[in-house]
Amino acid sequence: MKRLSRLRRHRAAGPILLIFALFTIGTTFQVASAVNNEAPTTADRSAVIEEGKQIFLKGCSSCHGLNAEGSQIAPSLIGVGAASVDFQVATGRMPMADMSSQAMRKPPVYDAEEVNALATYVASLAPGPQIPGEELLNYERDGSVAEGGELFRTNCAMCHNFAAQGGALTQGKYAPTLMGVTPRHIYEAMITGPQSMPVFSDKTLTPEEKLSIIKWVKAAEAEPQLGGAALGRVGPVTEGLLAWTLGIGLLIGVAVWLAMKAR
């Protein structure tokens, strides 16, 4: 007890106790602030999910079911993830009137906030691929054009054309052009596999390799179109076809004229 009394009477006891009290108060305030900030975040997410559910019930449930369980004309959305919804809805492919035809890219029906709410609702039903953030899409820093070109020709060119211009598939389907598609939607397509496209998981193509493909596509998009209407950049086909048709037609005409004159 005498030792404790001596410590209390020490000249440094007051400042030390003051610092300890301030540290305790500051720590308590930080913990309380973190708890208070977490509650509105949870509440905000619940509000976004509810908004997305209402959008789903009005615009999607007639095909995908009231609980996104799917139907005879549309697949289940349970487990497809936010990335799949963002790709399909933000590119205007969904909603669509005729589910028997291939969905085409067109102006979206919903704005960005509504798309986010719809994606958040579907993501809340079951785990699935998430929408890639901007930090994941820095293809200028993390991608390689040379590697991306090789990967594209190996994995994508058989459907999308070696110049990413798109191409025809079987049964009336087609692989769309990648020109003008945002990096986010290209990445989402690779991780979700929309329609006839396979899923390229991170084991098949690493995130860095996906960024390299995106960088190559954007480099191809920036290349000038030389030679007029090139039909998918396979060369000046239209001009050659015109010259061939006119040239052969002219030669045939001359041959017929000479034959008739020889009589």
Automatic annotation (TrEMBL):
Chain residues that bind heme c 2: C156, C159, H160
GO MF, any single term: iron ion binding
UniProt modification remark: Binds 2 heme c groups covalently per subunit.
Main subcellular localisation: membrane
Residues noted as binding heme c 1 in the record, renumbered to the chain: C60, C63, H64
Annotated EC: 7.1.1.8
Broad class of enzyme this protein falls into: translocase
Domain Cytochrome c positions: 47-126, 143-221
Enzymatic reactions: a quinol + 2 Fe(III)-[cytochrome c](out) = a quinone + 2 Fe(II)-[cytochrome c](out) + 2 H(+)(out)
Membrane-topology annotation of the record: Multi-pass membrane protein
One GO CC term, this protein: plasma membrane
A Pfam family per the record: Cytochrom_C
Subunit annotation: The cytochrome bc1 complex is composed of a cytochrome b (QcrB), the Rieske iron-sulfur protein (QcrA) and a diheme cytochrome c (QcrC) subunit.
Stated name of the protein: Cytochrome bc1 complex cytochrome c subunit
